[in-house]
Amino acid sequence: NGNLGAGASTSFGFQVSRPNGNTATPSGYTCTSP
Q1: Cα gap 14→33, rounded to integer Å
Q2: Total structural domains in the chain?
Q3: pLDDT (tens digit, 0 to 9) for every residue of the chain, 34 residues total?
Q4: Which segments carry the region annotation Disordered (predicted)?
């Protein structure tokens, strides 16, 4: 989550994983998400 950057928080990581389709690894997908 710390690797995110512009206006990205822990709660954002969870929302990012949802649209991706994999809720198993939210923190992992947050890195790849814009």
Answers
A1: 11
A2: 1
A3: 445 555 555 554 555 544 555 555 555 555 554 5
A4: 1-34
